[in-house]
């Protein structure tokens, strides 16, 4: 795992087309902005896990 330190309004770039920006830092919470091409799915981990669980169980759709 790569660990980086960033300040508000600083960013990291992944694969030339995905940008993660520190939008706000408030107490122990950090708000991040993600800029990615439309064809790249971006989910919170708990939503991603629910989608994967649904796919494994054979459900057709997941409300996310």
Overview of this protein structure:
By secondary structure, this protein is an alpha+beta fold. 20% of the residues lie in helices and 31% in strands. It has one helix at residues 45-57, and strands at 11-14, 18-26, 29-35. The chain has a 3-stranded antiparallel sheet, with no helix packed on it. Strand 1 (11-14) and strand 2 (18-26) form a beta hairpin.
Keywords:
about 60 residues; alpha+beta; 1 helix; 3 strands; about 20% helix
The global form is extended
> Can you summarize the main beta sheet?
3 strands, antiparallel
Straight-line distance between termini: 27 Å
Strands ordered across the widest β-sheet: 1-2-3
**Mean of residue pLDDT?**
92
Name the helicity range: 10-25%
Helix-strand topology string: EEEH
Rg, Cα atoms, Å: 15 Å
Q: What percentage of the residues does DSSP assign to strands (E)?
A: 25-35%
Low-confidence stretches are none
Number of strands: 3
What structural category characterises the helix and strand content? alpha+beta
Number of helices: 1
